[in-house]
Amino acid sequence: MSFKITIIGAGSLSFTQRLIGDILRVSEFADCEFALTDINQRNLDAITQVITRMIAANNLPATVTATTDRRRALEGAKYVMSCVRVGGLEAFETDISIPLKYGIDQCVGDTLCAGGIMYGQRNIPVILEICKDIKEVAMRDALFMNYANPMAMNTWAANEYGDVKTVGLCHGVQHGGEQIAEILGGSTEELDYICIGINHQTWYTDIKFRGRKIEADELLAAFLAHPKFCQQEKVRLDVLKRFGYYSTESNGHLSEYLPWYRKRPSEIVDWIDMSDWIHGETGGYLRHTRAQRHWFETGFDDFLKKADLPFGNTPRSSEHASYIIEAIETGRIYRGHFNRPNNGIIRNLPRDAIIEAPGFVDHFGINMIEGHELPITCATSCTASISVQRMAVEAAVHGDPNLLKLAVLHDPLAGAVCSPGEIWTMVDEMIEAQLKWLPQYAQ
After folding, report:
1. Which active-site residues does the annotation give?
2. Of 17, 120, 210, 396, which has the fewest Cβ atoms less than 10 A away?
């Protein structure tokens, strides 16, 4: 069973190796063709070495090609994955540093708030270029799997303006499920759940452990009794206590999507944990990314050695991509949580939004389950974020600086911290700093 899979932004070494390793663990896919593309030649050469050695270590007939020509890499592709980060570290620095001057304190800055919105402005023009290439040179009805943040905005633009069949894929639901299984004293195989909402604000609305329904008070008590999570997930647990539902994303992520936890510098320390950046550190993800800059000089040799090890019985990761491809190609049914246009899947969220909800995959593709109802507290927070996402997507597509400023103004955290005048000045400063990645604003 041979077909072509293209990975755009393949220079994200660890993630690309994980995705390809998962696919190659499916016996029917041993002879797939992988086409890797990235604008960074050094990273592209490095990941090509890794994948070539991984294929050889497992005596597989799969092939790998690499090119900086994205369009060439897409020719004849049946599946396309995107891991692009437009602007890299240079742009990311300004996503965090400029808003911080105005009092907007972000931990991650890749989904919402000023940083996430500007990230979307940089990514969406490239996403639409990718969609154009897919339509012109990939296989008809090729499936575009977007792994790049801001997940909802990128997936929204690809579906509505790129006119390409697109699904957004994230691992937040799986990772939250692993936490829940741990605090309940079991494994993920003993846990079932329904999780609905929007990416990075998805809510476990129904949880069963060993067949028994877990209510909010039991879940909260188990989290508070856990020596690690009770310290690392203070925002998530406060939201669980008040909303009655646990959210998928990390403490650092969730704290910047809501207006309550990062608006006063003196109080932020009460809601974060400094044991790791993801628990809420100011600019934590940026600091982590900076620390990885010299990884090639310090860690690449060890990475290559690991690529020389046969898979053996090591399992696949929890990333959705390989399971989706397996289900479509073989008919083995897979259940996961996917980012798709709403259209009634969650009845009390806007129909045009990109939602995250359960779906099943088989020979017929990704089939979402319609008719969910999100609890009103969770729906209220999600709807506020969706309104920001909608404005941000429209601004990115049409190059509308006023709409961009209004999107930031309506962002829950930015609006809690800044006055309208401050936001207008801040966005102007961010556009100027990032103009070389913002062709739609360069007119």
Report:
1. 171, 257
2. 210
